[in-house]
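Entry 14. Ran structure prediction on the chain below.
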Amino acid sequence: MFSEEVILKTLFYRFTLAIVAGLALTCSGLAQSHRPNTDNPDAHLSDETRKELARARQATTQFHDVEQALKDQYEDLNLFVPGQGFHFLNRSLLNGTFDPEKPQILVYAPTSRGRLRLVALEYAVPVDLSPDAPAGFTGDNDKWHIETAFGLWVLHAWVWQANPNGIFADFNPNVP
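Output, structure tokens:
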């Protein structure tokens, strides 16, 4: 049949081929895992921004309960904006300062059961207290805009509902 030498050479080549194929797959996997995620608009957020967002999330956990928000001086503005939701404002926080842990507005989306669920935090600074866009989260990712009807600089942070447009986008297609 086959000589021992032929069998050994065949095994050597198969073994070498298996090692080369394994290395190629490993290297391609590593290259893919280090490739920037272009599908995630928030992939470029700094660690500091992520920490600030985590603090904001932690500080607002209790507001999943709308009754708790009402107890903590957030009032229903009877303002529903499609792609955002219902807005609840704490007027005592409209003092011209930005604190990730103290959003001026809580944004709730309706559920199929007629309840409200917390989806975003909105920061608001009166234009008369800050003629220029306020300093917000670390970095340049947050884009404040003026809400002329209310005379406010505003910034959404979608910390409770994923937003394919980015965590700081104004509108969220995942919210009715």
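The longest strand covers residues 116-126. Will compare against last week's run tomorrow.
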